[in-house]
C-alpha cells in the first residue's frame, strides 16, 4: 500500500517526459528560430551612456588594412541621419591618425566579413558610402572612388526601397543613398532625405586614405 503513490508518481512523470519535446524543439517537431542579437541591439543598450552617438570598437579587416566601426547616430528630435549627414559625420571621425569615411566595399569576401563583424538585426538599416546619381544614372563611392574601381555590388531585388521615392518618379531628386537592408542583408537605395540610425565608418589604410575628395565625380553605370 505504501509503494502505490510512489509508483503512480513515477508513471505520471514518465508519461510527461515522453510527451515533452526535446530542449530547443517545438511540440510539432520543428526547431524554432533563435533570435540572434545584432550590433544595433548592443548599441541601443549602451547608447544611453554614450549620449546621442554610440560607436563600436574599430575592427581591423586584415586583407585591406582598413578599420571599420559601426555607429548609432540618434540625434535629439530626429529618427536618425540622412546619407549626407552620415557622410559628414564619418569624415569628421579619426582613428590612429586616419580620417574616416562611409564604408567602401570592394569584394564579396570583405562584405561577408563586415556582416560577421557587425551583424545587423531587423531594424538596423545601415548607410554605406555609395550613392546613385539620378541625372546620369551612375554610382559612386565617396572620395571620388568610381564604382568601376571596385566592381562589387550586393544588390537586392528590387534595388530601390519600395516607398515610391526613387529616380524617375520623384522630381528634383539628385541622388539616392545606398544602405544595407537587414532582412536580406543586401543593398538598396532610397531618397536622399531618408533617415536611418546606423552607418559604418571606414578608416582606410594610409595609402588608400590619400585619394582626392571629389564626391561630384560619379562612377560607371550600374543598377
In short:
Residues 1-17 form the signal peptide. The chain contains five helices and twelve strands. It has 223 residues and is α+β, with helices and mostly antiparallel strands.
Features:
C-type_lectin-like/link_sf; 223 residues; 5 helices; two-stranded antiparallel sheet; 25% strand; alpha+beta; 23% helix; disordered C terminus; Mannose-Binding Protein A, Chain A; disordered N terminus
Secondary structure tally, helices: 5
Total domain modules: 1
- Run of helices and strands: HHEEEHEEEHEEEEEEH
Q: CATH superfamily membership, which one? A: Mannose-Binding Protein A, subunit A
Mean pLDDT: 74
Poorly predicted regions are: 1-37, 209-223
Named at the architecture level, the CATH assignment is: Roll
Tell how many strands the DSSP assignment holds. Answer: 12
Look up the CATH topology. Answer: Mannose-Binding Protein A, Chain A
Give the overall silhouette.
Answer: globular
Report the β-strand fraction as a percent range.
15-25%
InterPro entries: C-type_lectin-like, C-type_lectin-like/link_sf, CTDL_fold
Signal peptide: 1-17
Keywords: Signal
Protein name: C-type lectin domain-containing protein
Amino acid at each position: 500500500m505504501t509503494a502505490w503513490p510512489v509508483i503512480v508518481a513515477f508513471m505520471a512523470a514518465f508519461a510527461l517526459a515522453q510527451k515533452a519535446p526535446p530542449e530547443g524543439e517545438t511540440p510539432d517537431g520543428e526547431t524554432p528560430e533563435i533570435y540572434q542579437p545584432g550590433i544595433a541591439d548592443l548599441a541601443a543598450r549602451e547608447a544611453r551612456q554614450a549620449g546621442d552617438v554610440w560607436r563600436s570598437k574599430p575592427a581591423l579587416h586584415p586583407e585591406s588594412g582598413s578599420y571599420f566601426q559601426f555607429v548609432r547616430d540618434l540625434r535629439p528630435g530626429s529618427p536618425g541621419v540622412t546619407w549626407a549627414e552620415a557622410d559628414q559625420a564619418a569624415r569628421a571621425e579619426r582613428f590612429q591618425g586616419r580620417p574616416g569615411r562611409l564604408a567602401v566595399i570592394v569584394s564579396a569576401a570583405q562584405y561577408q566579413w563586415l556582416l560577421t563583424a557587425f551583424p545587423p538585426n531587423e531594424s538596423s538599416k545601415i548607410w554605406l558610402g555609395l550613392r546613385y546619381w539620378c541625372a546620369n544614372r551612375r554610382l559612386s563611392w565617396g572620395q571620388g572612388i568610381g564604382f568601376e574601381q571596385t566592381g562589387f555590388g550586393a544588390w537586392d531585388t528590387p534595388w530601390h526601397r519600395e516607398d515610391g521615392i526613387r529616380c524617375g518618379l520623384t522630381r528634383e531628386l539628385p541622388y539616392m543613398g545606398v544602405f544595407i537592408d537587414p532582412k536580406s542583408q543586401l543593398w538598396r537605395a532610397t531618397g536622399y532625405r531618408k533617415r536611418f540610425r546606423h552607418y559604418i565608418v571606414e578608416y582606410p589604410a594610409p595609402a588608400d586614405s590619400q585619394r582626392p575628395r571629389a564626391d561630384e565625380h560619379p562612377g560607371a553605370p550600374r543598377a
